[in-house]
Amino acid sequence: MEYCFFKQGISPSWMDAANTAGGAIFIELPRLYRPLHLNKLMREVLYTLLGNQLPPPIDSTITGVAVNNMRVCVWIDNCKKERVRALAVHLEGKLSANHLTHLKFFPHQDVRGDQKQRGGGGLNSSRGSLRWGEWPTA
Predict the structure, then answer these.
(1) Is 100 exposed, middle or buried (0-12, 13-18, 19+ CB in 10 A)?
(2) 3-125: CATH number
């Protein structure tokens, strides 16, 4: 089951004009902790975003949040390293389960490339996680 919370007029798709140049920060928990902590993690992320607890210009970067039974994904409108890093650092500071969470960043352009190569949806899980030097410099 998946829940999506996006700004008005933005659809939960990388094809939406507001998401095309962006990506998603995936916040994951180890499998053992998911049943106990995933709902709490989802609430903390949503409260942070909906409660205007992010400083500008980070707050305007976020287009939406998607939640499924494995992770919380924060979607952003661009892949600028400074904004992604600032958002990741801020989210890590807000999450009470910080020692359990693992953050990864996936630009939507990589997802589109994977789908063209493999002919289907999904993400290539072999990509790196929040290693600044490997991020796009756009």
Answers:
(1) middle
(2) 3.30.760.10
